[in-house]
Design brief:
Layout: H1 6-12, E1 17-19, E2 26-29, H2 34-44, E3 53-56, H3 59-62, H4 71-80, E4 85-90, E5 105-109, H5 114-122, E6 127-132, H6 144-151, E7 157-158, E8 172-177, E9 180-185
Parallel strand pairs: 1-7, 3-5, 4-8
Antiparallel strand pairs: 1-2, 2-6, 3-6, 4-5, 8-9
Length: 191
């Protein structure tokens, strides 16, 4: 699979890309680019209090962005990563406040999609600050055509899906705080 060589350059120049995941289409940028994160909020017309999440092709790339994950979270990671689960846990100092809307927590996820994995391998640091590819309060894009329709005029690149389509159901979002597990959104993974 040939992933667009421009991805690295686009991201390093405060760019925003749209891409397929295992669940729905996403928008992403480098987490250390405040300019690009602001662009995502503008594109989506997203409320400032709603945080972005961090995604990568491998769990270990995300671990620097969070404090040590509680045991219950580690079990979920072992069972469901890569997959349609987002784990919300305490962030480390490496995660900028503008990514988390000033919250002390951050969501992390490893999608199970070959195109997304290749994008991460082309991404400096292998981590993207992400959200779904749609305007706020509109349905998430589920196909390349919908992603282009929603986002092509706003983003720097809509990466083709190369036949690796998403399933169309958002990820489950689970918060892990000490021994406590809290389900914020029931999605593709049933917990």
């Amino acid at each position: 699979m040939i992933i667009n060589e421009n991805i690295k350059e686009i991201l390093e120049n405060d760019g925003v890309i749209a891409f397929v995941t295992d669940t729905v289409w996403g928008l992403g940028c480098l987490p250390n680019s405040e300019k690009a994160v602001k662009k995502i909020y503008e594109i989506k017309k997203r409320e400032q209090y709603k945080p972005l999440i961090l995604m990568s092709s491998e769990t270990y790339h995300l671990l620097d962005y969070v404090k040590p994950v509680p045991k219950v979270g580690c079990r979920l990671i072992k069972e469901y990563f890569p997959g349609a689960l987002t784990i919300v846990t305490e962030k480390s100092d490496k995660t900028p406040d503008y990514v988390t809307s000033g919250l002390k927590t951050v969501g992390i996820r490893v999608p199970d999609n070959e195109v997304f994995k290749s994008i991460c391998e082309a991404t400096p640091g292998n981590v993207l600050a992400t959200t779904s590819a749609n305007l706020s309060h509109q349905p998430s894009a589920k196909t390349y055509e919908q992603a282009c329709e929603n986002m092509a005029e706003f983003v720097d690149l809509v990466v083709p899906d190369y036949g690796f389509e998403c399933k169309g159901l958002e990820s489950t979002v689970a918060g892990v705080f000490g021994d406590e597990l809290r389900i914020f959104r029931q999605g593709a993974v049933k917990i």
